[in-house]
Amino acid sequence: MKRWSWETAWLVAGVFSWIIAPWVFALINTNDVVQVLRETPRETWFYTYLFGAMWGMGGLTFGLTMRYLGMSLGMAVALGYCTVFGTLIPPVFKGEFHAKLIESESGRWVLAGLVVCVVGIVINALAGKAKEAEMNQEQKRKTVKEFNFKKGILVATFSGIMSAGMAFGFTAGDPISEISRQYGTDPLWSGLPVLIVVLLGGFTSNFIWCLILNIKNRSGYEYLASTQRHAAHLKDDTVLENVTDAPAFELTESPVSKCDDNKSRRIPLVFNYLFAAAAGVTWYFQFFFYSMGESQMGDYKFSSWTLHMASIILFSSIWGLALGEWKGASAKSKGRLFIGLGVLVLSTIIIGYGNYISGQSGH
Predict the structure, then answer these.
(1) Considering its fold, how many domains does the chain have in total?
(2) pLDDT at 253 over 50
């Protein structure tokens, strides 16, 4: 996406991922989705929506974590908090913690898997801390331009806890899934109507923030304009927003030409909307498949959150290596990272075994 402000690109992609895609795929794969939502109790609507809005706030600050810590370390810390809170709070909320995670053998395996996952996350964080200690300031800025460990840890803590709202939203939305099944929807797809509500909450918090930035940066015209205007706050060809203006990845290329010819400032609207749609729908698919997997996890479906987070940390760390964030780090620090990733893989195996035992025993 070119010559769009961050807030413009984020909101357009968000409309596709949080509004359009949930409705389209729910209408395709479930029965009478409108009637299902009409019959959903108000209390269920309220909490599912509220937790979605909470998750949306975590998502906004999640990007700041990437800016301050980089992809490898930022993902590990923020998603570490998200893993613990998102996995443990739902059974606590439903009063099932002791019965499901302490009394049964399968539950103890699942809990052990969560503990191992946390150990893996801690090892990854220590590897990132070691990398920071080994690199000089110039190297840090080269790999992560705004690297700030202390500030990043604070933001990551807030982001991780708030982002766990998605797991809470799935738990609060269980009655929606049940109503959908009563209308004949296959259990595999019964979580899709829940996504409509929880992502609506996420859209709300993101919409408000992007609207504020559109007003502040005077970028609201970009949704329909064919040419980008000059902006007084832009000083060069590449940097558009500062950290507080754009709390997420620099998803867009937004150069403002130093010359006045319209060609250099032309906004490719059609392509921008197409790429925004592709980005939004691709993002939505993570929870499309997550809801499918959760529906097959039986009594321990809350453990699917741990598997989801471990997978994200694993692959984001691999991407961090591929993008050169660990360039200049010692073999010892990289070794710690690989050990942490191995422990994460082990945690998914343990949790899977716990769910397997549950399926075999019927409890």
Answers:
(1) 1
(2) no
Q: How wide is the angle at C-alpha 162 spanned by C-alphas 240 and 285, nearest 5°? A: 75
Q: Identify which of 228-232, 247-251, 278-282, 310-314 has the greatest average pLDDT.
A: 278-282
pLDDT of residue 117: 83
CA distance 190 to 195: 10
97 inside domain: yes
What would the pLDDT profile of 38-74 be if each residue is shown by its tens digit?
999 999 999 999 999 999 999 888 877 877 777 667 7
Task: Please state, in angstroms and rounded to a whole number, the distance separating the CA atoms of residues 41 and 53.
Answer: 19
| Domain span holding position 124 | 6-254+261-361
d(CA 296, CA 304): 10
Q: Give yes or no for a contact between 298 and 359, defined as CB atoms under 8 angstroms apart.
A: yes
Domain annotation covers residue 236: yes
CA distances from 240 to 15, 233, 255, 305 (A): 22, 8, 8, 35
Distances (CA, A) of 180 to 30, 60, 286: 7, 31, 21
Given a cut of 50, is residue 272 above it in pLDDT? yes
Is residue 294 classed exposed, middle or buried when 0-12, 13-18 and 19+ CB atoms within 10 A define those classes?
buried
Provide the token pair at 71.
Answer: 């992809």
Q: CA nearest 287: which of 266, 309, 316?
A: 309
- The alpha helices in the chain, defined as continuous H runs, are 6-14, 21-29, 33-39, 42-93, 97, 105-134, 137-143, 149-163, 165-172, 174-182, 192-217, 269-294, 304-322, 331-361
Amino acid letter, residue 278: A
Residue 274: how many CB atoms within 10 A of its CB? 12
1 assigned to some structural domain: no
- In angstroms, rounded to a whole number, what is the distance separating the alpha carbons of residues 152 and 316? 17
Is residue 13 one of the residues assigned to a domain? yes
Rama region for 232: left / alpha / beta (φ>0; ψ in -120 to 50; rest): alpha
Contacts of 258 (CB under 8 A, 6+ apart): 237
